[in-house]
Amino acid sequence: MVCGNCHRDLAEYSNYCYYCGTRQAVANTPAPGVRKRLMRSAVDCKIAGVCGGIAEYLDSDPTVIRLVFALVAFMTGIFPGVVGYLIAWMVMPVAPVYSPAQQSSQARQTAHPA
């Protein structure tokens, strides 16, 4: 990666140039072979994590997803909204939760493969 301002070589993951401080345009592309899955959030959950999981999948704010879900549920009737939430609760798997020790060991394994 090359800085657009000072034209020096940078690491691919750099958000800022460490020579001139200019913000770099980094594409948010997942690692090769990794695909995003729709799962219930194990961290951001109020009832079952369905809205939190949808927000993580869509890269949006979970509060907005909850408000949209509540508005749709009240506009179409409470029963269809509750049934839809229950079906999503049963169908969507729970996202795994990693401890900080597991995350750091995974980062070391991907940085220095054996």
Features:
114 residues, mainly alpha, 4 helices, 0% strand, elongated
Characterise the protein shown here:
With 114 residues, the chain is mainly α. Helices cover 44% and strands 0% of the residues. It has four helices and no strands. α1 packs across α2 and α2 crosses α3. The chain is elongated, with a radius of gyration of 20 Å. The model has no long low-confidence stretch (mean pLDDT 77).
The succession of helices and strands, N to C, reads HHHH
Q: Structural class of the secondary structure composition?
A: mainly alpha
Proportion of helical residues: 40-55%
Secondary structure tally, helices: 4
Which band does the percent of strand residues land in?
A: under 5%
Taking the alpha carbons of the first and last residues, their distance comes to: 26 Å
Q: Report the major sheet.
A: none
Shape: elongated
Integer average pLDDT: 77
Radius of gyration: 20 Å
Low-confidence stretches at least 5 residues in length (pLDDT < 50)? none
Query: How many beta strands in the DSSP annotation?
Result: 0
List strands and helices in order, with pairings.
Layout: H1 50-58, H2 62-76, H3 78-91, H4 100-111
Helix pairs in contact: 1-2, 2-3
